[in-house]
Amino acid sequence: MKILLVNKFHYLKGGSEKYYFELGELLKEHGHEVAWFSMEDDKNITTGDKEYFVEKFDLNNGSKLKALDVIYSKENKKLMEKALDEFKPDIVHLNNFQRQLSASIVNPIKERNIPIVFTAHDVQAVCPAITMLDNDGNICEKCMGGKYINCVKKKCNKGSTLKSLLGAIEGKYYRNKKIYTEKIESIITPSSFYKEKLIEDGIEKDKIIAIHNFIKTSEYEVETTNEGYALYVGRLSKEKGILDLIDAFKNIENGKLLIAGDGPEKENIQATIKENSLEDRIELLGFLDKKEIIDYISKCSFVVIPSIWYENCPYSALETQAIGKAIIGANIGGIPELVDDGKEGLLFESGNTEDLQDKMELLLKNTEKANKMGMTARNNAKEKYSIDNYYNSIIKVYESLL
């Protein structure tokens, strides 16, 4: 089978890109031929396969006229036509394609009667601001059903009226052209929670299949110790709830909190740590590579996922469980699907810093309990995130469309 994998970034920017590359490797390992369609960037990874790159486009720095390319780009459409005619895929598998690649790449695929599979890594199909958070950081579902004017009213997209308007226009265009409801034949959601949100928004339930992401659990089989620190791993952004994590941790007498990652909230986080005189107890580790992440997780007491948005299926959770560590996670979005509360970790009420503080204190004081939860998670991870199971599921999706 020949599969064209599409994602707007072709380097390891986040979870969507990790999935994009690892799915490609998984398909090739089973004898399938893969090609890639993405955006030019100096950080792009060379795969050795056929690669097609559209011109780099940064919405934050582009002109207002160029910004309309997020709706429809003639240049991107032409390159997709070239990729389809040269590579001749049996399936096109879309990941994060909105905005930088635009809906223009969909029509050439449909004109050639090639089935489209789409993995929804976020809720952009429902929310023009992507996160379903308003500009104040509160959960917001007012745009459900295509009521995108609410995004403009509340300036949900980075506090900008222009960016919020552009997102609303884009959302309306996708809805009017029936991109998700008709032109994409099958949608994969990495959580059942996301599946329900898409159904609630009007997408036919029979075309959506919930399959948790996968990882090579064998790569995470390492020796573990418990050095008594709490750990956060991920992007430093508002929706991740890191300021709540710091607020909860500041009243805990013992232990350390390590924060790994980079992102737009870094300066805010640094300032909050300084304001609370927590420099000796909270350490920012910066961006870590895979080997460093595994090392820090293997030595922690537990990993915290303090999200305040509808998290999908974070790789930090999968990796933590594969290594054999407990998770303290917010009971929001897809997180409760990953953490068996009381057995593989603990869930707390998202945004409730007192509840989070209590759960962290419990596991920092009771290392035996934390270790036992971690081992339970590790034993279950081999089945839950199995590569073979995922491959069998994805191939069923592909074959059902051919």
Give an overview of the whole structure.
The structure is a single chain. This protein has a 7-stranded parallel beta sheet, sandwiched between helices. A 6-stranded parallel beta sheet has the order 10-9-8-11-12-13, with helices on both faces. It has 2 domains: 2-214 and 386-401, Rossmann fold (3-Layer(aba) Sandwich), CATH 3.40.50; 217-384, Rossmann fold (3-Layer(aba) Sandwich). With 402 residues, the chain is α/β, with parallel strands linked by helices. It has 15 helices and 13 strands. The chain is 39% helix and 15% strand. Helix 11 (315-323) crosses helix 14.
Quick overview of this protein structure:
The protein has 15 helices and 13 strands. The chain is of the alpha/beta class.
Label the overall shape.
globular
Q: Within the CATH hierarchy, at the fold level, what is the topology of the largest domain?
A: Rossmann fold
Order of helices and strands: EHEEHEHEHHHEHEEHEHEHEHEHEHHH
Task: Kindly give the count of domains.
Answer: 2
Mean pLDDT: 95
Number of helices: 15
Q: Largest sheet, if any?
A: 7 strands, parallel
Q: Using only CA atoms, what is the Rg? A: 21 Å
Strand portion, in percent? 5-15%
Low-confidence stretches: none
CATH H-level superfamily title of the largest domain: Glycogen Phosphorylase B
Key descriptive features of the protein:
Rossmann fold; 402 residues; alpha/beta; 39% helix; six-stranded parallel beta sheet; 15 helices
Write the layout of secondary structure elements.
Layout: E1 2-6, H1 15-29, E2 33-39, E3 50-54, H2 74-87, E4 91-94, H3 106-111, E5 116-119, H4 149-153, H5 161-176, H6 179-183, E6 186-189, H7 192-200, E7 208-210, E8 229-233, H8 242-249, E9 256-260, H9 266-275, E10 282-286, H10 290-299, E11 302-305, H11 315-323, E12 326-330, H12 335-338, E13 345-348, H13 353-365, H14 367-384, H15 387-401
Parallel strand pairs: 1-2, 1-4, 2-3, 4-5, 5-6, 6-7, 8-9, 8-11, 9-10, 11-12, 12-13
Helix pairs in contact: 8-13, 11-14
